[in-house]
Amino acid sequence: MLEAFFTPRSVAVIGASREQGKVGHDVLRNLIQYGFKGRIYPVNPKATEVLGLPCYPSVEAVPGEVDLAIIVVPAAATLTVMEECARKKVAAAIIITAGFRETGREGAERERRLVEIARRAGMRVVGPNCLGIINTHADLNASFAAGMPAKGEIAFFSQSGAFGTAILDWAIGAGIGFSKFISVGNKADVDETTLLQAIGTDAESEVILGYIESVERGGEFMRVAREVSKRKPIVLFKSGGTAAGARAASSHTGALAGSDRAYSAAFKQSGILRAHQVMDLFDWGMAFAFQGRIGGPRVALVTNAGGPGIIATDAIEESSLEMATFTKETIESLRTRLPPTANLYNPIDVIGDAKADRYEAAIRAALADPGVDGLIVILTPQTSTECVPTAEVIAREAARTDKPVLACFMGGPRTDPGARLLMERRVPVYDFPERAVAAMDAMYRQHLWMTSPAGRAERFELDAGAIRAAFASAREAGRLELGEQEARAVIEACGIRLPRTILATDADSAVRAAREIGYPVVMKIASPDILHKSDVGGVKVGVASDDEVVRTFRYIRARVAEAQPRATIRGVLVQEMITGGKEVIIGMMRDPQFGPMLMFGLGGIYVEVLKDVSFRIAPVTRADAEQMIDEIRSIALLRGARGEPPSDIAGVTDALLRLSQLVTDFPEIVEMDVNPLKVFPKGEGVVALDARLTLADV
Ligand code: ADP
Ligand code: MG
């Protein structure tokens, strides 16, 4: 799809310069120096020859076809050059020149016109304002980066050119190879989604790493990533947690959501591994590139020092991995080969004076154990430690097994030669145990993703007519915010249970309602203008007698009249009092990039204090909803802590799925809270005690 960028037969450098140090010079030099085999055409009206190649006054003057144009002319000249490329039927252009959207209005307009020219001509564009691209497997360095990485299986794209150059230079030093490097710049045409799709089918790329600051087409991005990540790992680092959609939120969900939450949710649902530190990108990337897949969570550790073994064990406990338990045979085999002071159980401690032979015995025994899925070998430099021979042993044993082997060489000058040998032999090596564990954890999470069934959003019977009617009547009254009374109709139409409720317009009818429902009852102000009823003294729970109903009716009316004299009052809701169960919240807000984002959390009045919530982009699958519930810190409370019965988590899942369908089917809902949703013990379902929602202003 992007062949013209990655395997062009001919490349024109428009703006090729004779002057060393100029970008137009360096790009051409990189093309020549790193051995590009296709034809190279420098274009510059003021020169006849650049770097030994004949130079052309314009791209149209080039005798043969041009697959790829690299444009390095000043910003003001780019549109003319693009027109020429269009006439020349150039297939792809990399626009290195800056001075577009990133500089303001005029630049943005220039960028818009540039895209227009490209679209009309069917030309694809990388950039503008970028560093260029590299395809090591085609010996193509179409960039002004200083240097060329080795051939490898890691594809890396970056929204920051400077970050890209730093990484390239670092990778060259660390001995990490790349398949492709793409600096996407302003992403006027080719963006992260285009790249995921292209690299997804690229035989030379086994892992996709990316540094992004934003995602352009949220829905399409998720769709493509979900498909590609089933075949190869995608690890992304996303920077810039600036709050998008600065609109003041009227719901708890709106207040707790945010663009970073949306990215996290979208990544999880698309099988993208999110790097939390820049370091993670390559820590994980090389594990994927150098080692095979891990088939399960059980990790064995071999170490010559107690402390680092404990650090690694702790990190494993906190990850999705587990410490492997060895078979009797493994332990016996270790007993005969290791000194009596050695620890034979996981972590295997070969003791500080271990030489390479002891590591070899321990590694072989661990890898032979059927209860071990992966191995991490830790080495610290003691006086008798043989760093290089031990590295040799690790590399040899790693090459003989299908199980992934990662190494952690802690130290500096003494361990470096061993670490270098490991990297050359494709055993990822880390300087701290947590980093090795995090890399193996990423491998295991990728395995889980690849083996999990795809899952589709389920469909429920929603009463669409009732929902539309509720929205229409609110809009007719000029309101976009629906309080409990109106939102109840929507919740009911979704098939989520509600407490029995009767609207009373005077004290006598309130008493009749209470008797009909049965004592005790809850009484709540019924006003379309009041969304936070408790705040104005509009809620009373546990009303237990006729007398109390009469008093409460008057009390609520008086309190509300005082707090909000102008509110339209329809009466007082007399409601079935729901006892027992736990309060959770489910809600939704719309993210500008990814659309409807669902929230789940422990509810009630402390939700914004505890912030114990989780998010997913709707529509969600049952598995998504289950994971979402599982993800909150206080999940133990719902599972049944301290002798309490477990809560009806299946009931919450069902409610979340229904809400997911509601907000997907009705894009006009911009924000919504069901809080609290009461969850009863397992098998007894859920009840929505309160709800509110906001409609789009269309
Ligand atoms: P607000 O508009 O102030 O959020 P709610 O309807 O949520 O009003 O009521 C406030 C609190 O009262 C709820 O969080 C819940 O704890 C309790 N409550 C509300 N309705 C009921 C009910 N039917 N049964 C039991 N408790 C209720
Ligand atoms: Mg409430």
Structure description:
By secondary structure, the protein is α/β, with parallel strands linked by helices. The protein folds into 4 domains: 3-205, 3-Layer(aba) Sandwich (Rossmann fold), CATH 3.40.50; 290-451, Rossmann fold (3-Layer(aba) Sandwich), CATH 3.40.50; 464-576, 2-Layer Sandwich (Dna Ligase, domain 1), CATH 3.30.1490; 582-695, ATP-grasp fold, B domain (D-amino Acid Aminotransferase, Chain A, domain 1). Helix content is 39%, strand content 21%. The strands form 6 sheets. A 7-stranded mixed β-sheet has the order 9-8-11-10-12-13-14, with helices on both faces. Strand 29 (669-679) and strand 30 (686-688) form a beta hairpin. The radius of gyration is 32 Å and the shape is flat. 51% of the residues are buried. The structure holds adenosine-5'-diphosphate and magnesium ion. Residues 484, 499, 522, 524, 532-534, 539, 541, 575-578, 583, 604, 676, 689-690 line the site of adenosine-5'-diphosphate.
Give a short synopsis of this structure:
The chain has 24 helices and 31 strands.
**CATH class division of the largest domain:** Alpha Beta
The figure for the number of domains is: 4
Number of DSSP strands?
A: 31
* Mean pLDDT across all amino acids: 95
- In CATH, the homologous superfamily of the largest domain goes by the name NAD(P)-binding Rossmann-like Domain
Structural class: alpha/beta
Alpha-carbon Rg, integer: 32 Å
- The number of helical runs is 24
Strand content: 15-25%
CATH topology tier name of the largest domain: Rossmann fold
Bound molecules: adenosine-5'-diphosphate, magnesium ion
State the major sheet.
Answer: 7 strands, mixed
Low-confidence stretches: none
Q: What is the CATH architecture annotation of the largest domain?
A: 3-Layer(aba) Sandwich
Proportion in helices: 25-40%
- Termini separation comes to 39 Å
